[in-house]
Specification:
single chain; Rossmann fold; alpha/beta; elongated; 2 domains; 267 residues
C-alpha cells in the first residue's frame, strides 16, 4: 500500500493545449493521464484524496476539492475550457492552499502539475516559489511536455530547489509513439507509490498492475480499446455539434444578407 497522501492535480488549460503534437491534443493527453493518476493514487491507499485545479484562462480555478469520487474529478475536467494563458506560480500557490484545507492532516501533501505551455516566470521567481513549497512540506511533481525546449532548464532548477529526499520529480515527455500516461505510469511519479509493474510489463502500456486500474476482471487490451473508442465517439459527437453550429451560423448570415438586400430594395 502506498503512503497516505492528499494530491492536487494542476492541469494546464491555456491556448497552447490545443496543439495536436500529442494524441489527440495536448489537452486530451493530459486528461487521460489525470484520470490514470487519480485511479492510481486512490488504488494505492483507500484513504488518499485527489483534487483538481486548472491554471490557464484568467487565473487558477479549483475544479474539484480533495475527494475519492472520480465523478467529481471527471465533471470538473469536462466543465473547464481551453482559453487564456498559463498562470503557473499562481496555480501552484492555489493548489497549496487547497492542500492546506485537507481534512486529514496526517496526509502528506503533493501537487502534480502538467506544464504544456511556456512558463513566463523568471528563474528567480520560480526559486522563491520552490523554497516556499519546500518549507510547507509540499512535494511537487512536474510533467513537462509540449514546450520542453523552453521550459526544461527552468523546471530542472525548480525541481533541484524543491526536491527534499527525492520527494519531488520532473518527468520530461517529448512527443513520440508512447502515450503521455504510459510514460507517467513508468516514471518515478507513480512508481514511488509501491506500484509494482512486474518485469517488462510496460511494453504495451498496460501490463502487470496498470491493467488492474481500469478493471481487474477485464482484458487490459480490451479495456484500453474500449476507452479509446469512447473517446473517439466523444470527439465525433463534438465534431458533429461544431459542424451543426457552423451550418446554423452560416444560415443566419444568409438571412441577414437577404434582409439587407430587401431593405436596400425597399429604399
Amino acid at each position: 500500500m502506498g503512503g497516505l497522501e492528499a494530491t492536487m492535480i494542476a492541469i494546464d488549460n491555456s491556448e497552447f493545449m490545443r496543439n495536436g503534437d500529442y494524441v489527440t491534443s495536448r489537452y486530451d493527453a493530459q486528461l487521460t493521464a489525470t484520470e490514470f493518476i487519480f485511479q492510481n493514487k486512490v488504488n494505492s491507499n483507500p484513504e488518499n484524496t485527489v483534487g483538481l485545479l486548472a491554471y490557464g484562462g484568467n487565473g487558477p480555478e479549483v475544479l474539484s476539492t480533495l475527494t475519492t469520487d472520480f465523478g467529481k474529478i471527471l465533471s470538473g475536467a469536462h466543465e473547464t475550457k481551453i482559453h487564456g494563458e498559463s498562470h503557473f506560480s499562481n496555480g501552484i500557490s492555489v493548489a497549496a492552499l487547497a492542500l492546506k484545507h485537507r481534512q486529514n492532516k496526517v496526509q502528506a501533501q503533493r501537487i502534480i502539475v502538467f506544464v504544456g505551455s511556456p512558463i513566463v516566470e523568471s528563474e528567480k521567481e520560480l526559486e522563491k516559489l520552490a523554497k516556499k513549497m519546500k518549507k510547507n512540506n509540499i512535494a511537487v511533481d512536474i510533467i513537462n511536455f509540449g514546450e520542453e525546449s523552453v521550459n526544461t532548464s527552468k523546471l530542472e532548477k525548480f525541481n533541484a530547489t524543491i526536491n527534499n529526499h527525492d520527494n519531488s520529480h520532473l518527468v520530461t515527455v517529448p512527443p513520440g509513439p508512447r502515450l503521455l500516461y504510459e510514460v507517467i505510469a513508468s516514471s518515478p511519479i507513480l512508481l514511488e507509490e509501491g506500484f509494482d509493474m512486474g518485469g517488462d510489463s510496460m511494453n504495451d502500456g498496460f501490463g502487470g498492475g496498470v491493467g488492474d486500474i481500469i478493471d481487474p476482471n477485464m482484458d487490459p487490451d480490451l479495456a484500453l480499446a474500449l476507452r479509446l473508442s469512447l473517446e473517439e465517439e466523444k470527439l465525433r459527437q463534438e465534431r458533429e455539434a461544431a459542424d451543426k453550429a457552423k451550418e446554423e451560423s452560416s444560415k443566419d448570415l444568409e438571412k441577414i444578407d437577404e434582409n439587407k438586400e430587401g431593405n436596400e430594395e425597399s429604399k
